[in-house]
């Protein structure tokens, strides 16, 4: 009898192979042939699951966003009811959640590196994921805004605090930390990223 292959599992294997190629050699090197070789498959097998390079790229980007979202949800579930937290506990929770968006370990470094390549490529070729890149940017802002709103609800906010402006400031901080941690890891390490993020959140309450 022919061996049964789980379609979703095989597609995930192919995507993981794409991530490895992209991290090691750059997304521009992640051709169907290169991904097939990395996955230990023939190119016909890859084309059985993905019609072309564009479909593979889009699926890979969506998979990455889903994985980040799943990690965030697990963090939220594990934290319990934030309404019972005092302001300092809530700031620590906020830092923990937002840290999931920073390249602080091997998994998140790989995701951030590939995501930077994705959004750069989609700027000139929107079909491979321009809408996904925009959705990710909007999702980050939504998360940041919700966290800031919850923080201000737990304590008297600064009288000059503007949630819209602070959302953009904190989103830009996260983007800058991620970009620098990927491009210049000798200049800023994970511990410093966390310290910068925590300091920013603490000062919102000053």
UniProtKB/TrEMBL annotation:
One of its GO terms (molecular function) is transcription cis-regulatory region binding. It holds the Pfam family TetR_C_6. Residues 31-50 bind DNA. SUPFAM superfamilies: Homeodomain-like, Tetracyclin repressor-like, C-terminal domain. Residues 8-68 form the HTH tetR-type domain. Keywords: DNA-binding, Repressor, Transcription, Transcription regulation. InterPro entries: BetI_C (IPR039538), DNA-bd_HTH_TetR-type_CS (IPR023772), Homeodomain-like_sf (IPR009057), HTH-type_TetR-like_transc_reg (IPR050109), HTH_TetR (IPR001647), Tet_transcr_reg_TetR-rel_C_sf (IPR036271). It comes from the Bacteria. PANTHER family: HTH-TYPE TRANSCRIPTIONAL REGULATOR PKSA, HTH-TYPE TRANSCRIPTIONAL REGULATOR RUTR. This is TetR family transcriptional regulator. It comes from Nocardia terpenica. The lineage of its organism: Bacteria, Bacillati, Actinomycetota, Actinomycetes, Mycobacteriales.
